[in-house]
Amino acid sequence: MSEYRALYRKWRPKTFGDVVGQEAITAALSNQIIANKVGHAYLFTGTRGTGKTSCAKIFAKAVNCENRHGAEPCGECVPCLGLENGSILDVVEIDAASNNSVDDIRDLRDETAYRPSRCQYKVYIIDEVHMLSTSAFNALLKIMEEPPAHVIFILATTEIHKVPATILSRCQRYDFVRISAAHIAGRLQYVAGQEGIPLTPEAADLIARLADGALRDALSLLDTCAGLGEEVTEEVVRRMAGVTDKSYLFALSSAVAAGSVPQLLQLVASLREQSIEVKRLAEELVHHYRNYILLAAKPDGTLLEELPQPEREKYLATMAEVNEATAINAVRRLAAAMDKMGRSPDPRIELELALFDLCTPVQPAAQQPVAAVSQPQKAATPPAPAPVAQTTAPSPVVPLQPIAAPAQAPQPKAPAEEPAATAEPTEPPMPVATPEDGATTLFEHWPAVVAKMGEMDKMLHSYMKKSTAYFDGARVLIDGGDMFRSFVKEYAEANEKIKGAIQEVTGTRYAIGPYENTGLVAEQKPVVNAADTLKSWEAKGVPIKYD
Predict the structure, then answer these.
(1) Per residue in 195-216, is it b (16+ CB within 10 Å) or e — as a string?
(2) What CA–CA distance (Å, rounded) separates 187 from 164?
(3) Within 13 Å and on the Cβ side, how many CA atoms surround 380?
(4) Residue 511: helix, strand or coil by DSSP?
(5) Phi and psi of 441, rounded to 5°?
(6) Distance of CA 375 to the CA centre of its chain
(7) For residues 100, 106, 112 and 117, what is the CA-based torsion angle, rounded to 10 degrees?
(8) How far is it, in rounded angstroms, from Cα 16 to Cα 71?
(9) 3-state helix, strand, coil in the chain (%, to 5)
(10) In which region does residue 288 sit, left (phi positive, over 0), alpha (psi from -120 to 50) or beta (all else)?
(11) Phi and psi (nearest 5°) for 401?
């Protein structure tokens, strides 16, 4: 009884012509071999199952083949047969995932000093090279800088971003793309025909889509389905792959559009009972809503050509339920849920929360700040201004009352009309009429405001301690010097905190601004410092002694 080999091993490409979906790369490698311009280091990168290692082995055989047909190895000469059955050790395949230490690379470096035993080139294929340690990369870099003429390195990786730039700069890089579903389905039909496996075209298309660009995954799934010993149909593939038809995706999106949370939870529970993995369901929903985005970009459905015709027709029939904005929001929310699933004790909860959010209508952004500002003002507004104790005779000041902005230009004489008190004072807009034709008066509550700020913000209080404030009938104008102004400009919350402190003390919310000395200060006494006093006494004949 002969040993059974898995389909992906049995049907691994043996020539460049067998490689599916990488025509540009195979053409470039073939031209180098024909022109005898083979490099010393190559880097193959791409997702799993796209042919990186297969191309590396074909290239290793081609450069050592004695009876090459163009660029293709003959498969019959001694080097080809020896490399195929492992009797010739001039092509070394290293798994960097398990041989990633610096000692492993040092041993490799020592071996490169010896010429190949039977072939023309000694080829080192390092798979998953991104798994090498930093010290191992440094050791590999040394030999890649000046390799012997008989040595060729072929590095393969699925995570190119983890390979150091010093290694990348010394290699010819080839990016292996995902294989299209059409190419995979055609290869599956060919393999199934050679193996005598009854495979329907619909089943081949479904396997190709599930493989997501990896031919090896497609062959493995075909191998699994063929193990049942019956015709491989679309239903068999769905059953063996653990997926159902796409009708449940349309049912979920319809429930989201209707805002029916109970129906969504019931659908998720039902799908989970069918052993559908939650994270995979989230991925399918992301692709489902992406199809609606593509449909919004081109309503004729030309961007959905890879989908089967019945499925494409269903998207066209339901496109009115899901608009572009809804689809984009769904993709973002589901992607965020998938990111949290790895850290969540139950991924199902993250999916249900995401679907619940999609059902919840979002309020317009313009309405949210109004409620957020108006409610705190009602709670924080006291019924009357707090009394302030005075130790000296008060200076004459204008009564502090909220002044509403006039609808028209201010009238010069309106002393008899005073604004009515309101239960909810609001901050008056600027500019407004000021008393005495623009004159300002000292703001008598400022010491209490500064003291209140000492409780609210110590840093801001330190800048306000030596400041003075004036009142122009509508605004509190602060004279705090250049340092105070600079601090307020850099500290974005300073304005709101000062307004809040003034409201705490006076019970009214006023606008604030910088004080500009225009000479219009009502009944303001000149400020006299100690030096001026001494000079005035000395002018009057009082003897002054200076130390």
Answers:
(1) eebebbebbbbbbbbbbbbbbb
(2) 36
(3) 17
(4) strand
(5) -130, 160
(6) 35
(7) -80
(8) 8
(9) 50, 10, 40
(10) alpha
(11) -140, 145
In 5-133, alpha helices (H): 7-10, 23-34, 52-64, 78-85, 102-111
The SS3 call for residue 13 is coil
Intra-chain end-to-end CA distance of the chain, in Å: 118
Integer Cα distance of 374 and 271 in angstroms:
46
Ramachandran category for residue 124: left, alpha or beta (phi over 0 → left; psi -120 to 50 → alpha): beta
Contact 77, 208 (CB under 8 A): no
pLDDT in tens, the chain (547 residues): 457 788 888 888 888 988 988 889 999 999 999 988 888 999 999 988 888 999 999 999 999 898 888 888 988 888 888 888 888 888 888 888 888 888 888 888 888 888 888 888 989 999 989 998 888 888 888 888 888 889 999 999 999 999 999 999 989 999 998 988 889 999 999 999 888 889 888 889 888 888 888 889 999 999 888 888 788 888 888 888 766 667 888 888 889 988 888 888 888 888 888 777 888 888 889 999 999 998 888 888 788 877 777 788 888 888 888 888 889 999 999 999 998 888 888 888 888 888 888 887 544 444 444 444 444 444 444 444 444 444 444 444 444 444 444 444 444 444 444 444 444 444 444 333 344 444 578 888 889 988 888 888 877 777 787 888 888 877 888 888 777 777 777 676 788 888 888 888 888 888 888 877 655 444 444 444 556 666 666 676 666 665 5
SS3 156: strand
The one-letter amino acid code at 9 reads R
Give the residue among 136, 133, 147, 144 at the shortest CA–CA distance from 168: 144
3-class SS string, 460-492:
HHHHHCCCEEEECCCEEEEECHHHHHHHHHHCC
| Tokens matching residue 131 | 């798994």
Which residues have CB under 8 Å from 449's CB, separation 6+? 464, 469, 498, 501, 502, 505
Tokens of 187: 């290869």
CA dihedral angle for residue 197, residue 200, residue 203, residue 208, rounded to 10 degrees: 80
